[in-house]
């Protein structure tokens, strides 16, 4: 149990450290234990400020841990930004859906009549 607290505490000690490397065991130890702690917080405290603060701190620590994990496998930590690509694509699609129709006929056929 003491080893578990030490390993988990080390991750939070390095929660802003984006340099160096982290092994798989450190990543999965953090993910599993964070999920268990979040579950316990929700069971005992519900949706509270404690849960919110823990979640924010855990996400910051997870980002640093993932960057170090990328370093461990030989990749740049900037690959973490790839998680935002789906969000950007969703916004772009949403904006495109509000564009006006192309005037006249285009390669897909004539302009449809307006909806009534």
Radius of gyration based on Cα positions: 23 Å
Strand content: under 5%
Largest sheet: none
Number of continuous helical runs: 4
Structural class: mainly alpha
- The low-confidence parts are none
Q: Regarding quaternary structure, how should these chains be classified?
A: single chain
The tally of structural domains comes to 1
Report on this model:
By secondary structure, the chain is mostly helical. The protein has one domain (2-95). Helices cover 60% and strands 0% of the residues. It is built from four helices and no strands. The chain has helices at residues 2-13, 24-45, 49-72, 85-96. Helix 2 packs antiparallel against helix 3 (49-72). It starts with a helix and ends in a 20-residue tail after the last helix.
A few lines on this structure:
This protein has 116 residues and is an all-alpha fold. The protein has one domain (2-95).
Keywords:
membrane, 116 residues, mainly alpha
Layout: helices, strands, pairs:
Blueprint: H1 2-13, H2 24-45, H3 49-72, H4 85-96
């Amino acid at each position: 149990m003491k080893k578990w607290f030490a390993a988990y505490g080390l991750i939070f000690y390095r929660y802003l450290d984006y340099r160096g490397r982290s092994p798989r065991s450190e990543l999965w130890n953090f993910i599993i234990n964070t999920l268990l702690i979040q579950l316990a917080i929700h069971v005992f405290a519900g949706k509270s400020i404690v849960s919110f603060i823990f979640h924010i701190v855990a996400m910051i620590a997870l980002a640093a841990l993932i960057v170090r994990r990328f370093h461990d496998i030989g990749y740049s930590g900037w690959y973490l930004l790839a998680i935002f690509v789906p969000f950007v694509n969703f916004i772009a699609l949403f904006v495109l859906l509000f564009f006006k129709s192309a005037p006249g006929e285009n390669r897909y056929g004539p302009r449809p009549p307006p909806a009534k």
